[in-house]
Q: What sequence folds into this?
């Protein structure tokens, strides 16, 4: 009589829904179920269970699971019946059927040991004793186990496994709560300048200011780095388990907050010093310079250097055109002193000769003679010639120095600003 009743229950499961499954899969599931039902009629219960379970794997169905539960009960395998009854409770929504399944749970629990597993977060796959025994459902879940010490393991994607050992007691339900910690890595951010704010774009969560090192769950993120007066930067990162992603960024100032300095001139490759620090060789453009007064120096081998003060305005471009002088192109500076010296010496010699001529005149006046007269005339002529030559030499030197050559040429720089 009992056998006939179970056969009837099994056959009731033939009408299970397959609308949501692919036609081929549904047909295979139906065939597996029919084979299981036939095996059940032949009292080949273990083989029938294999077919029922295969059918449910293809298309999970509450009616098929109910038949699996009842077949395990008929075989007096209470632990398996209990576990499949838990699966059935997860599928069925009808209040009457759930009430019957809950009563069955209570009846089966008297003969088995039960572990009630809850996890945070929920939905973790549960293993008992060994992973190779397969998954016993997902948390929260009541699992029938053999009495004694049992190893319970919970696994959830992107989380570390949680494991505990419980002492299962026959006829009792032991509660187990497992905390699954998420897989985590870390993010290290360094910026120049420091003090930039780092936040996650999707959630807006602020991680802190650089330099920083922040733990993050495994996953992909878009990180936003901001600093007042500088351009915002966004980076895509992927955090791996127990891995650290490092970002090292140079933040560019806003154009309105900095000045651009360009240095060029008649000697390519000249070295440029800005405020005492060498910044490169010309032609040179420095795109981000702090506004204000700066000391600029340009040096080149074989040329006189140029040094000047440059006022850089915010948001402007300043260009310095330099002209460095080659000292070898200048005339010898001693020539003017030779000219002035020679003219002065001639004039002095003429003056001295004139004084000598005055003495000769006195001699002539005391004792006139043709010889004295000739000597006097020669001395006067020589004095005139020497003094005239001196004046001409000084005059020519002055004209050449002041008019024709001008002041000595020096290295210089011309500053122009584009706003």
A:
């Amino acid at each position: 009589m009992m056998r006939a009743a179970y056969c009837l229950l099994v056959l009731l499961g033939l009408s299970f829904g397959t609308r949501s499954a692919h036609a081929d899969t549904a047909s295979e599931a139906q065939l597996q179920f029919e084979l299981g039902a036939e095996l059940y009629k032949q009292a080949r219960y273990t083989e029938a269970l294999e077919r029922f379970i295969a059918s449910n794997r293809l298309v999970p169905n509450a009616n098929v699971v109910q038949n699996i539960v009842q077949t395990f009960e008929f075989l007096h395998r209470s632990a398996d019946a209990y576990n499949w009854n838990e699966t059935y409770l997860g599928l069925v929504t009808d209040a009457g059927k759930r009430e019957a399944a809950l009563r069955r749970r209570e009846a089966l629990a008297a003969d088995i040991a039960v572990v009630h597993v809850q996890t945070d977060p929920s939905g973790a796959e549960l293993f008992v004793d060994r992973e190779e025994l397969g998954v016993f459902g997902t948390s929260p879940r009541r699992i029938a186990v053999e009495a004694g010490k049992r190893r319970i393991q919970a696994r959830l994607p992107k989380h570390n496994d949680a494991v505990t050992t419980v002492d299962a007691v026959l006829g009792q339900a032991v509660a187990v709560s497992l905390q699954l910690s998420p897989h985590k890595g870390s993010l290290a951010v360094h910026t120049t300048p420091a003090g930039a704010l780092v936040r996650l774009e999707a959630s807006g969560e602020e991680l802190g200011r650089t330099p920083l090192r922040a733990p993050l769950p495994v996953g992909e993120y878009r990180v936003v780095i901001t600093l007042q007066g500088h351009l915002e930067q966004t980076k895509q990162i992927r955090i791996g388990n127990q891995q650290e992603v490092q970002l090292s960024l140079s933040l560019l100032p806003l154009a309105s907050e900095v000045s651009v300095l360009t240095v060029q001139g008649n000697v390519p490759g000249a070295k440029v010093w800005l405020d005492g620090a060498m910044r490169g060789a010309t032609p040179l453009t420095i795109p981000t310079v702090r506004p204000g007064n700066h000391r600029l120096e340009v040096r080149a081998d074989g040329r006189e250097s140029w040094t000047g003060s440059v006022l850089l305005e915010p948001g402007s471009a300043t260009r310095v055109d330099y002209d460095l002088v080659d000292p070898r192109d200048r005339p010898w500076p001693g020539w003017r002193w030779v000219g002035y010296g020679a003219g002065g010496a001639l004039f002095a010699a003429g003056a001295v000769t004139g004084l000598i001529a005055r003495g000769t005149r006195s001699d002539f006046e005391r004792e006139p003679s043709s010889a004295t007269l000739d000597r006097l005339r020669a001395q006067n002529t020589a004095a005139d010639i020497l003094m005239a030559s001196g004046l001409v030499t000084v005059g020519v030197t002055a004209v050449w120095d002041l008019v024709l050559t001008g002041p000595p040429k020096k290295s210089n720089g011309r500053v122009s600003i584009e706003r």
